[in-house]
Specification:
Keywords: Cell cycle, Cell division, Cell membrane, Membrane, Transmembrane, Transmembrane helix. The chain is of the alpha+beta class. It folds into two domains: about 190 residues, no CATH class; about 90 residues, Alpha-Beta Plaits (2-Layer Sandwich). Helices cover about 70% and strands about 10% of the residues. It has a four-stranded antiparallel β-sheet with strand order 2-3-1-4. It is elongated. The two termini are about 20 Å apart.
């Protein structure tokens, strides 16, 4: 296509949006509502996956060491733990450190257990390379000499892994379904606007305009409709998420879970919404035009 012809089509597509008035507003509104729904749910699902990943990584194996175990034996336990397949990191927590943690959580009433009255054990806190390896690592750690027990949450951890897997699977399914819904609604809305202008297309064919000459203004108009329809969702998603992040981050400060930082992913959602609007708008217009351009 020649540069001059493309500029003419571009100008004509913008004029058509203005000329069609309420029909253009209706099409852009349908795109806006659809993309707003896609943007909000994608933001939620991405954060659900992020927190699910944090929950998985928060599950650790606590290897409890027998009382009376000397320093040499404690070091030997660590050496044997490092040889277990799947172990990522090992940290030692003494009886006194364990008691300090309890006092910090439950209050000063537990101070009376200091010194020889401390009923707690020395512990190795083990992080695994993959959450699915937690149970295997715990079972192998139990068999090490001078290990009293190895705990990972038992049934609760198994349920947690199952829930996390379910959330991630359904999150992916919902995201794909949303994109299909967006394709269906936007392309059909564009198709309705073209159907209302079939007489205009017929006149252009009668005066000898080629198919490409007729098609391009409509394709560009569909792209403009998708782009304009994406602007409001992009603004609302960005403003809404920044507000939600500021509020919810305070509630999560006391936990090891964090929401996605706005600057890390919002631009990707913005770009995705704009691309979805433009591509689907243009494709919807192009496919709808095919019906009227058949000889």
């Amino acid at each position: 296509m020649k540069k001059l012809t493309f500029k003419r089509h571009l100008a004509e597509s913008l004029k058509s949006l203005k000329r069609n008035g309420w029909m253009s507003v209706a099409a852009i509104s349908a795109v806006t509502v659809t993309l707003l729904l896609v943007g909000v749910l994608l933001s939620i699902l991405l954060n659900v996956n992020k927190i699910a990943h944090d929950v998985e990584n928060d599950v650790q194996v606590r290897v409890i060491i027998d009382r009376g175990t000397n320093e040499k034996q404690i070091k030997q336990i660590k050496q044997k733990l490092t040889k277990i397949d799947g172990v990522k990191k090992i940290e030692f927590s003494s009886r006194s450190e364990e008691l300090k943690n309890i006092i910090g959580v439950y209050g000063n009433d537990f101070r009376l257990f200091r010194g020889d009255s401390n009923p707690l054990y020395d512990v190795y806190v083990v992080d695994t390379k993959s959450p699915s390896q937690t149970i295997t690592v715990a079972n192998k750690a139990k068999k090490i000499k001078n290990v009293y027990d190895a705990r990972y949450g038992g049934i609760a951890a198994k349920k947690l892994f199952k829930v996390v897997g379910t959330v991630q699977r359904w999150g992916a399914i919902i995201s794909i379904l949303l994109l299909f819904v967006a394709v269906f609604l936007i392309s059909n809305t564009i198709r309705i606007t073209i159907l209302s202008r079939k007489d205009e297309i017929g006149i252009m064919r009668l005066v000898g305009a080629t198919n490409n000459y007729i098609r391009w203004p409509f394709v560009l108009e569909g792209a403009w409709t998708g782009l304009f329809g994406a602007i409001i969702p992009i603004v609302l998603v960005d403003v809404g998420y920044n507000w939600a992040y500021a509020v919810l981050s305070k509630s999560l400060e006391s936990t090891s879970y964090r929401l996605l930082v706005p600057g890390q992913f919002l631009w990707q959602i913005d770009l995705l919404l704009a691309v979805i609007g433009i591509v689907i708008g243009a494709l919807g217009a192009g496919v709808s035009m095919s019906k009227f351009l058949k000889i």
